[in-house]
Amino acid sequence: MPPLDDTDRRLLNDFQRGFPLTARPYAALGRRLGVTEDEVRRRLGRLRDQGLISRIGAVVRPHTAGCSTLAALAVPPADLDRVAALVSDQPEVNHNYQREHTFNLWFVVCADSRPAVTRVLERIAAASGLEPLDLPLLEDFHIDLGFPLWT
Amino acid sequence: MDLTASDRALLAALAEGLPLSERPYADLAAALGLDEATVLARLAALQEGGVIRRFGVVVRHRPLGFTANAMVVWDIPEAQVAEAGRRLATAPEVRLCYRRPRRPGRWPYTLFCMVHGRDRDTVTAQVAALARRLDLDGYEHRILFSSRCFKQCGARYGKAA
Description:
- The complex is a heterodimer of chains A (about 150) and B (about 160).
- With about 150 residues, chain A is α+β, with helices and mostly antiparallel strands.
- Chain A has two domains: about 5-50; about 65-135, Alpha-Beta Plaits (2-Layer Sandwich).
- Chain A is about 35% helix and about 25% strand.
- Chain A contains five helices and six strands, in the order αααββαββαββ.
- A four-stranded antiparallel β-sheet of chain A has the order 3-4-2-5.
- The radius of gyration of chain A is 19 Å and the shape is elongated.
- Chain B has two domains: about 5-50; about 60-145, Alpha-Beta Plaits (2-Layer Sandwich).
- Chain B contains five helices and five strands.
- Chain B has a four-stranded antiparallel β-sheet with strand order 3-4-2-5.
- In chain B, helix 2 packs across helix 3 (about 35-50).
- Chain B is elongated, with a radius of gyration of 19 Å.
- The two termini of chain B are about 20 Å apart.
- The interface between A and B is large, with 78 and 76 residues.
């Protein structure tokens, strides 16, 4: 992966919130960075292809556009790859991480309703033979301002 | 605020990422049978209404060197958990801070927060300092570092149900 220059770093760091809601947002970014609109689009495409950008998009407040839960499985280590793959294969799963704990596979299920979330968990339970820990959000304290990458 | 069917479709389309085209909102609008001005107005309204909490570049932390991704879980009694959550949420090193249910016999922890850092030792020290500073070190807590990311993408609401 080529090293990131200052323009790359600013593209990653400076536009995590308040993305321009104007007809040509990449031109607006270009004016801020002193590069052309095409250059911005080309660089963002490259940063995405390099896996550094997940997407340009909205981080939605939990439970306003649907229903979600954080779930965990205690997977026998030898079976982890198989179970992780079957969890990732569910289109309703949007995060899936191995963590260091007896509950070693943690994932987020998002669907349109709580019954739909439950159905996904049941599907995963049936396919894995393991009982998911179901930890729906009860209260949200955080204000997401994006994350300072280089300070 | 209440979401219209059209708002839901817009959020679902946006979960794939804003196109990198010259007129990305016009392209998004065309795919949904809307016009560009409507999409821009709805996105502004959804941010104003707090449905969209932030709109912009969503980075992947791990390949950027933030390899220490810690979920910190705290066993805090019902009566104190909201106050503790509000205090934790103000800490600059904390991303996301949620209360979740205890599952007796399986899972005792009620408060969850995320701390990202460039290495484990730094994050471990940050969490210890955080606990002291916020007077939370009397509560049992654990740091669950992530060792592998199998999947990370935007929530696909309104798609598969």
